[in-house]
Amino acid sequence: MTIEFGLSTLSRGTLVSRAAYLQVAQAAERAGFAFLSVNDHVIVPGQLGSAYPYTQGGAWAAAEHGHCFDQLTTLAFLAGCTSRIKLLTSVMVVPHRPPIAAAKMLATIDVLSGGRLLLGVGAGWMKEEFALLGAPFAQRGTVTDEYLEAFKALWTQQRPTYAGSHVNFADVIFEPKPIQKPHPPIWVGGESPAALRRAVKLGDAWYPGNNSQTEPLDTPARLATAIASLRRLAQTAGRDPDSLAVNLIVQNPFEWTSRQIADGSARRLFTGASVDMAADAVALEAIGVHHVAVRLGGATLTESLEHIDRFGREVIRAR
Predict the structure, then answer these.
(1) Dihedral of the alpha carbons of 1, 288, 200, 241, in degrees to the nearest 10
(2) Is the pLDDT assigned to residue 1 strictly greater than 70?
(3) Residue 149 in this model has a pLDDT that exceeds 70
(4) Which of 6, 82, 211, 250 has its CA 20 to 30 A from that of 56?
(5) Residue 316 gets which letter from DSSP?
(6) How many angstroms separate the CA atoms of 169 and 180, rounded?
(7) Is the distance from CB of 285 to CB of 269 less than 8 angstroms?
(8) Among residues 41, 25, 16, which one has the least CA distance to residue 79?
(9) How far is residue 87's CA from residue 201's CA, in Å, rounded to a whole number?
Protein backbone atom coordinates (compact mmCIF):
# COMPACT_ATOMS: atom_id res chain seq x y z
CA MET A 1 0.00 0.00 0.00
CA THR A 2 1.26 3.46 -0.91
CA ILE A 3 -0.28 6.48 0.74
CA GLU A 4 -2.16 8.89 -1.49
CA PHE A 5 -1.78 12.55 -0.61
CA GLY A 6 -4.46 15.18 -0.71
CA LEU A 7 -4.19 18.95 -0.47
CA SER A 8 -6.32 20.40 2.33
CA THR A 9 -7.50 23.95 1.67
CA LEU A 10 -9.23 26.57 3.79
CA SER A 11 -11.40 29.09 1.96
CA ARG A 12 -9.71 32.09 3.53
CA GLY A 13 -6.23 33.61 3.59
CA THR A 14 -4.73 33.36 0.11
CA LEU A 15 -7.78 31.49 -1.24
CA VAL A 16 -10.33 34.28 -1.28
CA SER A 17 -10.87 34.58 -5.02
CA ARG A 18 -11.88 32.54 -8.03
CA ALA A 19 -8.47 32.96 -9.62
CA ALA A 20 -6.60 31.80 -6.52
CA TYR A 21 -8.67 28.65 -6.02
CA LEU A 22 -8.43 27.85 -9.71
CA GLN A 23 -4.63 28.13 -9.67
CA VAL A 24 -4.26 26.09 -6.48
CA ALA A 25 -6.55 23.30 -7.72
CA GLN A 26 -4.79 22.99 -11.05
CA ALA A 27 -1.35 23.15 -9.39
CA ALA A 28 -2.35 20.34 -7.03
CA GLU A 29 -3.49 18.21 -9.96
CA ARG A 30 -0.20 18.81 -11.80
CA ALA A 31 1.84 18.05 -8.67
CA GLY A 32 0.32 14.60 -8.30
CA PHE A 33 -2.03 15.11 -5.37
CA ALA A 34 -4.78 12.48 -5.43
CA PHE A 35 -7.48 14.66 -3.89
CA LEU A 36 -8.29 18.23 -2.94
CA SER A 37 -10.37 19.15 0.09
CA VAL A 38 -12.46 22.16 1.07
CA ASN A 39 -13.56 23.04 4.60
CA ASP A 40 -17.11 23.78 5.73
CA HIS A 41 -18.57 26.83 7.44
CA VAL A 42 -21.63 28.77 6.38
CA ILE A 43 -21.87 31.69 8.78
CA VAL A 44 -19.78 32.92 11.71
CA PRO A 45 -21.20 34.68 14.80
CA GLY A 46 -19.80 38.04 15.81
CA GLN A 47 -19.18 36.69 19.30
CA LEU A 48 -17.87 33.12 19.39
CA GLY A 49 -18.01 31.24 22.67
CA SER A 50 -17.46 27.69 21.35
CA ALA A 51 -13.92 26.36 21.66
CA TYR A 52 -12.28 25.09 18.49
CA PRO A 53 -11.22 21.50 19.27
CA TYR A 54 -7.96 21.52 17.28
CA THR A 55 -5.93 24.34 18.85
CA GLN A 56 -4.56 24.83 22.32
CA GLY A 57 -6.81 27.26 24.11
CA GLY A 58 -9.65 26.74 21.60
CA ALA A 59 -8.99 29.78 19.41
CA TRP A 60 -10.27 29.57 15.83
CA ALA A 61 -8.31 31.46 13.19
CA ALA A 62 -11.36 32.60 11.19
CA ALA A 63 -13.34 33.92 14.16
CA GLU A 64 -12.69 37.59 13.42
CA HIS A 65 -13.12 37.81 9.64
CA GLY A 66 -15.43 34.83 9.08
CA HIS A 67 -14.53 34.40 5.42
CA CYS A 68 -15.90 31.10 4.13
CA PHE A 69 -17.03 30.07 0.68
CA ASP A 70 -19.85 27.56 0.65
CA GLN A 71 -18.19 24.16 0.60
CA LEU A 72 -20.40 22.34 -1.89
CA THR A 73 -20.58 25.24 -4.31
CA THR A 74 -16.78 25.49 -4.19
CA LEU A 75 -16.38 21.78 -4.92
CA ALA A 76 -18.77 22.07 -7.86
CA PHE A 77 -16.64 24.92 -9.21
CA LEU A 78 -13.45 22.89 -8.71
CA ALA A 79 -15.03 19.93 -10.51
CA GLY A 80 -15.38 22.11 -13.58
CA CYS A 81 -11.79 23.31 -13.65
CA THR A 82 -10.01 20.01 -12.94
CA SER A 83 -10.12 16.65 -14.66
CA ARG A 84 -8.44 14.00 -12.49
CA ILE A 85 -8.14 15.04 -8.87
CA LYS A 86 -10.80 13.80 -6.45
CA LEU A 87 -12.82 16.29 -4.42
CA LEU A 88 -13.25 15.88 -0.66
CA THR A 89 -15.57 17.59 1.81
CA SER A 90 -13.27 17.99 4.80
CA VAL A 91 -15.45 17.75 6.60
CA MET A 92 -19.06 18.52 5.76
CA VAL A 93 -21.01 19.38 8.92
CA VAL A 94 -23.89 17.07 8.17
CA PRO A 95 -26.64 18.71 10.28
CA HIS A 96 -26.09 22.13 8.66
CA ARG A 97 -28.05 21.34 5.51
CA PRO A 98 -31.49 19.78 4.91
CA PRO A 99 -30.79 16.12 4.15
CA ILE A 100 -32.65 15.69 0.86
CA ALA A 101 -31.22 18.91 -0.58
CA ALA A 102 -27.72 17.98 0.60
CA ALA A 103 -28.01 14.50 -0.91
CA LYS A 104 -29.05 16.08 -4.22
CA MET A 105 -26.14 18.54 -4.23
CA LEU A 106 -23.63 15.81 -3.41
CA ALA A 107 -25.01 13.46 -6.07
CA THR A 108 -24.87 16.28 -8.61
CA ILE A 109 -21.21 17.00 -7.80
CA ASP A 110 -20.39 13.32 -8.21
CA VAL A 111 -22.14 13.14 -11.58
CA LEU A 112 -20.76 16.39 -12.99
CA SER A 113 -17.22 15.58 -11.78
CA GLY A 114 -17.30 12.15 -13.41
CA GLY A 115 -17.38 10.28 -10.10
CA ARG A 116 -14.72 12.18 -8.17
CA LEU A 117 -16.54 13.08 -4.94
CA LEU A 118 -15.25 11.94 -1.54
CA LEU A 119 -17.60 12.67 1.34
CA GLY A 120 -15.84 13.58 4.57
CA VAL A 121 -18.41 14.07 7.33
CA GLY A 122 -18.62 15.32 10.87
CA ALA A 123 -21.18 16.32 13.49
CA GLY A 124 -19.82 19.85 14.01
CA TRP A 125 -18.52 21.88 16.95
CA MET A 126 -19.71 25.51 16.69
CA LYS A 127 -22.92 25.82 18.71
CA GLU A 128 -23.54 29.39 17.59
CA GLU A 129 -23.41 28.45 13.90
CA PHE A 130 -25.97 25.69 14.48
CA ALA A 131 -28.30 28.21 16.11
CA LEU A 132 -27.97 30.66 13.22
CA LEU A 133 -28.78 27.89 10.73
CA GLY A 134 -31.68 26.52 12.76
CA ALA A 135 -29.91 23.17 13.12
CA PRO A 136 -30.15 21.07 16.32
CA PHE A 137 -26.85 21.18 18.24
CA ALA A 138 -27.68 18.98 21.22
CA GLN A 139 -28.91 16.17 18.94
CA ARG A 140 -26.23 16.61 16.28
CA GLY A 141 -24.84 13.10 16.66
CA THR A 142 -28.20 11.41 16.11
CA VAL A 143 -29.03 13.84 13.31
CA THR A 144 -25.72 13.11 11.57
CA ASP A 145 -26.32 9.37 11.70
CA GLU A 146 -29.88 9.65 10.37
CA TYR A 147 -28.92 12.03 7.58
CA LEU A 148 -26.13 9.70 6.45
CA GLU A 149 -28.55 6.78 6.43
CA ALA A 150 -30.99 8.92 4.43
CA PHE A 151 -28.24 9.85 1.94
CA LYS A 152 -27.55 6.16 1.35
CA ALA A 153 -31.23 5.39 0.85
CA LEU A 154 -31.62 8.23 -1.67
CA TRP A 155 -28.45 7.21 -3.54
CA THR A 156 -29.06 3.46 -3.72
CA GLN A 157 -32.80 2.67 -3.63
CA GLN A 158 -34.98 2.77 -6.72
CA ARG A 159 -37.89 4.22 -4.71
CA PRO A 160 -36.13 5.64 -1.67
CA THR A 161 -37.79 5.34 1.73
CA TYR A 162 -36.49 6.35 5.14
CA ALA A 163 -38.18 6.78 8.51
CA GLY A 164 -36.33 8.44 11.36
CA SER A 165 -36.80 10.96 14.14
CA HIS A 166 -35.28 13.81 12.09
CA VAL A 167 -35.93 12.88 8.45
CA ASN A 168 -38.74 10.96 6.78
CA PHE A 169 -39.68 10.23 3.17
CA ALA A 170 -41.30 7.38 1.27
CA ASP A 171 -41.69 6.27 -2.33
CA VAL A 172 -39.84 9.21 -3.87
CA ILE A 173 -37.97 9.52 -7.16
CA PHE A 174 -34.39 10.68 -6.68
CA GLU A 175 -32.37 10.98 -9.87
CA PRO A 176 -29.67 11.05 -10.96
CA LYS A 177 -27.90 8.66 -8.63
CA PRO A 178 -24.19 9.21 -7.98
CA ILE A 179 -21.83 7.67 -10.51
CA GLN A 180 -19.84 5.90 -7.81
CA LYS A 181 -21.44 2.68 -6.61
CA PRO A 182 -22.96 2.04 -4.23
CA HIS A 183 -22.28 5.71 -3.38
CA PRO A 184 -19.37 8.14 -2.92
CA PRO A 185 -16.97 6.93 -0.22
CA ILE A 186 -17.87 8.25 3.23
CA TRP A 187 -14.94 9.31 5.44
CA VAL A 188 -16.11 9.81 9.02
CA GLY A 189 -14.19 12.57 10.78
CA GLY A 190 -13.62 13.00 14.50
CA GLU A 191 -11.64 11.33 17.26
CA SER A 192 -14.30 10.78 19.95
CA PRO A 193 -15.77 7.38 20.83
CA ALA A 194 -18.98 8.48 19.06
CA ALA A 195 -17.02 9.26 15.89
CA LEU A 196 -15.36 5.84 15.95
CA ARG A 197 -18.73 4.14 16.39
CA ARG A 198 -20.11 6.20 13.48
CA ALA A 199 -17.18 5.20 11.29
CA VAL A 200 -17.75 1.51 12.03
CA LYS A 201 -21.51 1.75 11.49
CA LEU A 202 -21.75 4.09 8.52
CA GLY A 203 -18.34 4.85 7.08
CA ASP A 204 -16.01 3.56 4.43
CA ALA A 205 -13.09 5.17 6.25
CA TRP A 206 -12.20 6.78 9.57
CA TYR A 207 -10.76 10.26 9.04
CA PRO A 208 -9.34 11.78 12.24
CA GLY A 209 -7.30 14.95 12.67
CA ASN A 210 -3.78 14.76 14.04
CA ASN A 211 -4.00 17.46 16.71
CA SER A 212 -7.29 17.12 18.54
CA GLN A 213 -6.97 18.61 22.00
CA THR A 214 -8.88 15.70 23.55
CA GLU A 215 -7.36 12.81 21.56
CA PRO A 216 -4.03 13.95 20.05
CA LEU A 217 -2.94 11.66 17.22
CA ASP A 218 0.18 13.64 16.41
CA THR A 219 2.64 10.75 16.16
CA PRO A 220 2.40 7.43 14.29
CA ALA A 221 2.56 5.57 17.62
CA ARG A 222 -0.43 7.42 19.07
CA LEU A 223 -2.39 6.97 15.86
CA ALA A 224 -1.53 3.25 15.83
CA THR A 225 -3.05 2.88 19.30
CA ALA A 226 -6.25 4.57 18.10
CA ILE A 227 -6.36 2.37 14.99
CA ALA A 228 -6.11 -0.73 17.18
CA SER A 229 -9.11 0.52 19.18
CA LEU A 230 -11.03 1.11 15.95
CA ARG A 231 -10.31 -2.41 14.74
CA ARG A 232 -11.46 -3.92 18.04
CA LEU A 233 -14.65 -1.88 17.86
CA ALA A 234 -15.28 -3.09 14.31
CA GLN A 235 -14.78 -6.71 15.33
CA THR A 236 -17.17 -6.31 18.25
CA ALA A 237 -19.77 -4.84 15.88
CA GLY A 238 -19.38 -7.76 13.48
CA ARG A 239 -17.61 -5.76 10.78
CA ASP A 240 -14.42 -6.86 9.05
CA PRO A 241 -11.80 -4.35 10.27
CA ASP A 242 -10.06 -4.55 6.89
CA SER A 243 -13.19 -3.15 5.23
CA LEU A 244 -12.69 0.19 7.01
CA ALA A 245 -9.87 2.38 5.68
CA VAL A 246 -7.95 4.81 7.86
CA ASN A 247 -7.19 8.29 6.51
CA LEU A 248 -5.62 11.26 8.30
CA ILE A 249 -5.79 15.03 8.04
CA VAL A 250 -2.64 16.81 9.18
CA GLN A 251 -3.95 20.13 10.41
CA ASN A 252 -0.74 22.14 10.51
CA PRO A 253 0.73 23.38 7.22
CA PHE A 254 3.51 21.31 5.69
CA GLU A 255 6.73 23.32 5.80
CA TRP A 256 10.42 22.78 5.30
CA THR A 257 11.33 23.82 8.85
CA SER A 258 11.33 21.22 11.59
CA ARG A 259 8.62 21.85 14.20
CA GLN A 260 7.84 20.09 17.46
CA ILE A 261 4.48 18.71 18.54
CA ALA A 262 2.76 20.35 21.49
CA ASP A 263 4.51 18.35 24.21
CA GLY A 264 7.93 18.72 22.55
CA SER A 265 8.54 14.98 22.36
CA ALA A 266 8.72 14.56 18.58
CA ARG A 267 8.91 16.39 15.27
CA ARG A 268 5.57 17.50 13.92
CA LEU A 269 4.38 15.43 10.96
CA PHE A 270 5.29 16.77 7.52
CA THR A 271 7.73 19.39 8.69
CA GLY A 272 11.49 19.46 8.18
CA ALA A 273 13.35 18.28 5.11
CA SER A 274 11.57 16.49 2.28
CA VAL A 275 13.26 13.24 3.33
CA ASP A 276 11.68 13.68 6.76
CA MET A 277 8.26 14.09 5.15
CA ALA A 278 8.82 10.95 3.07
CA ALA A 279 9.77 9.11 6.27
CA ASP A 280 6.50 10.29 7.85
CA ALA A 281 4.61 8.77 4.94
CA VAL A 282 6.45 5.44 5.37
CA ALA A 283 5.68 5.42 9.10
CA LEU A 284 1.99 6.09 8.49
CA GLU A 285 1.81 3.44 5.77
CA ALA A 286 3.28 0.92 8.23
CA ILE A 287 0.37 1.38 10.64
CA GLY A 288 -2.27 1.13 7.91
CA VAL A 289 -3.03 4.71 6.85
CA HIS A 290 -4.36 4.92 3.28
CA HIS A 291 -4.76 8.65 2.57
CA VAL A 292 -3.20 11.75 4.13
CA ALA A 293 -4.56 15.26 3.64
CA VAL A 294 -1.81 17.82 4.17
CA ARG A 295 -2.72 21.43 4.77
CA LEU A 296 -1.69 24.15 2.37
CA GLY A 297 0.67 26.75 3.74
CA GLY A 298 2.14 29.95 2.35
CA ALA A 299 1.79 33.62 3.19
CA THR A 300 1.01 34.50 -0.44
CA LEU A 301 -0.55 32.74 -3.40
CA THR A 302 2.85 32.59 -5.12
CA GLU A 303 4.41 30.95 -2.07
CA SER A 304 1.51 28.51 -1.79
CA LEU A 305 1.91 27.45 -5.41
CA GLU A 306 5.66 26.99 -4.90
CA HIS A 307 4.97 24.78 -1.86
CA ILE A 308 2.52 22.63 -3.85
CA ASP A 309 5.00 22.14 -6.67
CA ARG A 310 7.87 21.36 -4.29
CA PHE A 311 5.86 18.86 -2.25
CA GLY A 312 4.85 17.13 -5.47
CA ARG A 313 8.45 16.93 -6.77
CA GLU A 314 10.25 16.09 -3.54
CA VAL A 315 7.72 14.02 -1.61
CA ILE A 316 4.94 12.60 -3.81
CA ARG A 317 6.90 11.80 -6.96
CA ALA A 318 10.17 11.00 -5.20
CA ARG A 319 8.73 7.99 -3.38
Answers:
(1) 80
(2) no
(3) yes
(4) 6
(5) I
(6) 23
(7) no
(8) 25
(9) 23
* DSSP at 223: H
How do the residues of the chain divide into helix, strand and coil, expressed in percent and rounded to 5? 40, 20, 45
Q: What is the pLDDT of residues 116-132, one digit of tens each?
A: 999 999 999 999 999 99
Give the alpha-carbon dihedral of 185, 240, 188, 251, to 10 degrees.
-100
Q: How many CA atoms lie within 13 A of 111 on its CB side?
A: 11
Q: What is the pTM of this model?
A: 0.97
Structural domains of the chain ordered from first start: 4-316 (3.20.20.30)
CA angle centred on 314, ends 308 and 316, rounded to 5°: 75
For residue 173, the one-letter residue type is I
Contact 63, 48 (CB under 8 A): yes
Output phi, psi for 246, to 5 deg. -120, 125
